[in-house]
Amino acid sequence: MHYTRNPYLQVTILILCLFIIACHHTEKPKDKQIVANPQEMNSTTSEHIKAVLEFALQNKGKVDDSIRLNLADIVAAFYGSEEYEPVWSNKEKWQPLADSLFQFIADAEQEGLFPKDYHFKNLQTLKNKLDTDSLKRMDAALWTRADVMLTDAFMHIAKDLKHGRLQPDSVTINKDSLPVSDFFIKNLNSLLATKQFTALIDSLQPSNKGYQELKKGIKSFLDSMDRRTYTYVNYPFKKGDAKDSLFFIKNLQKRLSESDAISAANVLPDSAELSSAIQKFQRFKGIKPDGKVSSAIIKVLNTSDAERFKRIAITLDRYKQLPDTMPEKYIWVNLPGYYLLVMDHDTVALESKVICGKPDTRTPLLNSQITDMVTYPTCTVTNSIIAKQYLRKLKINPGYLEKIGFKLVDSNG
């Protein structure tokens, strides 16, 4: 069957399609709008906030090429309930709470947080413009961006302080939920009503003694923190692969030179020079200077203060996964410390050493209610450890299990 094309129908359909697309497309907010009269700044900023949030909701939180809101839907819900009025500024002047929040973000590391997570650079640039340039101070578009970023930052901070940044999984036993009205908006409204910034921030964090003690030590750590970025050394390298071993030595030389243990020459060091450099680094770190390349020394080389701070932040977040009130009796296992504590009404009833798995067969992290306890249990090696550690050695020495005190039994015992 033959169909005749109707050009007029095609044009009509195209126009309808473009009209539908236009109806569902929000224009990008203005980058600049000067308001000569300070008394009109709030109303103009309010209009901009509404436009910016409508655009952000349709563009996965994106406000412009450099700004993306982390919690755009919640931020929009908050401003919608406030008639889109600015909350951190008033008629070309910062509200006192804005200064408190900005300073908190600048010092976020003191709380085990990272300023970059809360628009710090963008806010710093905007604040500098608005504080020092009288013409910029008349720009409603700049005040708008500052306002929505501060709101987004506050809500993100509230979430990170209360629940941390770790993904909820089997480790989590803090069952608190995060409903919009009962947490984010409620806390921001509370702050705006009471003006008690520090009190609110403190109330969001765990009262756990371990959490508070760890946080107290952050300041002294940051005061002496080495913020330099060091070369990461991959180890082990492929045995017998000359190219890979040369790359390893080159990286190791570069890393040792960054600690002034060897010169950063273009010529690769020989084994004696490399051993001497490792000994120099070991003495600097207070390690027995054997001059040998090992996984232990590479681990020290790769552990920077920046990495240590990340570990502090992760540990703080693990505390946030615990309930606000711990059970009267519980067992606390510290895997990095290789010990456990049996707690009874805030008193240590028992302390004991524990055995933990190696990194490749690591002990799992979990929280669980204890229902049964077996004394003197039979130690049954897991399949993963059998495959990774024992099969290879058994092929070489059939008597290996007997040598290490293990027995191999069948289903009949």
The gross shape turns out to be globular
Helix content: 40-55%
Q: Beta-sheet strand percentage?
A: under 5%
Rounded to the nearest angstrom, the radius of gyration is 30 Å
Could you explain the architecture of this structure?
The chain is mainly alpha-helical and 413 residues long. The chain has four domains: 192 residues, no CATH class; 62 residues, Muramoyl-pentapeptide Carboxypeptidase, domain 1; 46 residues, no CATH class; 40 residues, no CATH class. It is 48% helix and 5% strand. The chain is built from 16 helices and three strands. A three-stranded antiparallel sheet has the order 1-2-3, with no helix packed on it. A hairpin with a 2-residue loop joins strand 2 and strand 3. The longest helix is centred in the middle third of the chain and has 24 residues. It is globular, with a radius of gyration of 30 Å.
Short synopsis of the structure:
The protein is 48% helix and 5% strand. It is mainly alpha-helical and 413 residues long.
What are the key terms here?
globular; 16 helices; 3-stranded antiparallel sheet; 413 residues; Muramoyl-pentapeptide Carboxypeptidase, domain 1; 48% helix; 4 domains
Task: Please write out the topology.
Elements: H1 7-23, H2 41-58, H3 72-81, H4 96-106, H5 120-132, H6 140-163, H7 184-194, H8 197-204, H9 209-216, H10 218-223, H11 242-258, H12 271-285, H13 295-302, H14 305-320, E1 329-334, E2 339-344, E3 347-353, H15 383-396, H16 400-403
Antiparallel strand pairs: 1-2, 2-3
Helix pairs in contact: 2-3, 2-6, 5-6, 6-7, 9-14
